[in-house]
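Lab notebook, bench 4. We co-purified these components, and the gel suggests they stay together. Before we commit to crystallization screens, I want a quick structural picture of the whole thing.
Request: model the full complex, all chains together.
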Amino acid sequence: MMRLRRYWPVAAIALAVIVVQIVLSLAGTTYYMTQLTMSAYYALVVIGLCLLMGYAGQASLGHAGFFAIGGYTVAYMTTVNLLAYRDTGLIRALHWLGLVVQWRNLYGADVLSFSPWPAFLAALALTGLIAFLIGVPVIRLKGHYLAMATLGFGLIVYRIVLGTKALGQADGISNVPPFHLIPGLEVNGRSAFRIQNYYIAWALVLVSMVLAINLVHSRVGRALRSIHQSEEAAHSLGVNTYRYKLAVFVLSALFAAVGGALLTHYNGSIGPSEATVMKSVRYVAIVAIGGMANLWGAMLMAILLNFLSLRGVFGTFDDAVFGAILIFIMLFAPQGLLRLPRLRSLSSLLSRRPHG
Amino acid sequence: MDSVLLETKSLHRSFGGVHAIRDVSIQVHRGTIKAVIGPNGAGKTTLFNLIAGTIPPQKGEVSFQGRRITAWKPHAVAGLGIARTFQTTKLFPHMSVLENVMVGRHPRTRSGFLAGMLNLPCTWREDCEIRDKALAILEDLGLAGYAGETASNLPFGRQRLVEFARALATEPILLLLDEPAAGLNIYETKELSDLILKIRDRGITCLVVEHDMSLVMNISDDVVVLDQGQKIAEGPPQVIQRNAEVIRIYLGDDYGPCQE
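Here is the predicted assembly.
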């Protein structure tokens, strides 16, 4: 019984997701679902960052970089045209294995490119590898130094996607095909697929939440929290602090890559704006306003703020709003918005932690 | 069985120009309580850190159960069965008392990231075992009533005990206690010395850095005295108490043998 108690918010949110869909459909305003779907993919980044920052206490100002690596990898692999090489042995072999497909893009041109599944797995592998290679040296750094090193990484990724011709430079990559997950389910931004995609994205968010919550309450989760609260004591109790920090860094990068890859298929495109430092700052601001070590708070804030931002509520002040949020939280509510006295009851409802 | 559990050979460590530890060789025998005493700055905590792997020695060797563990990392040392407490209590302040002790089960359990995320039946079972073991240890130390309390809310003396419980949860062979009586009142100190004796009687060897002389003289089987990084005396407490050099360090030259 206790084992299931931690999942009740998942059921509550799942119910809310269904109710929202029904209400929007009845009201004839299903277009809101598009932004809710996009927000859900951004929420994946925030869930991963919350594990890294909130629980393990390791800052990252480079998560937009991992998001972009995931997104650009699938965009490049699913749009690169291999038609000229179709008769080479390698491409034939890939074709035979089903790893490349021929399809017709929006302009009616034939394209032979990688299928979405291999592209998706390659995106995860590449992001994981890069996170590992970056993590090996920088995860030894503490506090501000780690933040600065990851900031540097984010800047480099931004400059690379902006400067690389194959990645479309300032235009990014468009014409990214839909992602057929299984027969009958596809990540596709066309309005006919709106409701289906709303559920795909939310199912993914809820599955990620379950995985993250399980992790937080596990032996590994306790080890991560112990590193945050006293690294020396954790180390003396047998926690391989370096390895755990590195592993959670890679894990959170993978969350970002999944969000980036799927949002790219959903939008049909990705541009360098996804890799900017302001995007990284935005993710950090959301984790902070959610209460740092509070997965539910971070997830809900990710949905709320990204939804408002995508609806254009913040207008030209979009980035400024997130900067302001960061200042406000650090000054007045370093424990997160949900820890302000008036909102505390709501927060305890959300993050009620049974012992385990 | 070899009775020497832990041995250091000519350990040396300096910080800048300061020789914190100079040529220190000690032996700790199985099933005993050994105390390390000495004035402030004598290098007692540095010696602990060299054994526990917090800092590597520049020269010398540490061996445990006949195995060289010089400059091993703290987590590896902990995995071998050496647990420690800190001079200034280092609990995980925002975790519950129970969770603090549960972290202590880390080296004796195995579930990894994937198992943790999927919460497989075997992961769940292991977690239940961790919880039961931790609760049993809290019960044993009379802390069961605090299990759900956030660690930082406990009074100082209790926090010390929780740190003890956490170290015991690793099922150590050797327990390193860094000034366990610091900041405790006489009643708590008495409680503590009973506890250390109880732990020893269960077969856990203890190495204790301590300032409190009454505690040291009451519980230890063997005492080593450090001064300015060097070992100046070693032996049973009754002998150490009469050692002229030790008296000089503690009470000043007027009481020592070298009056002119």
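Chain A touches chain B at residues 3, 211-212, 214-215, 217-223, 225-226, 229-230, 232-241, 247-248, 251, 293, 355-356 (CB under 8 Å). Worth comparing against the SEC data before the next meeting. The CA atoms of residues 161 and 167 of chain A lie 6 Å apart.
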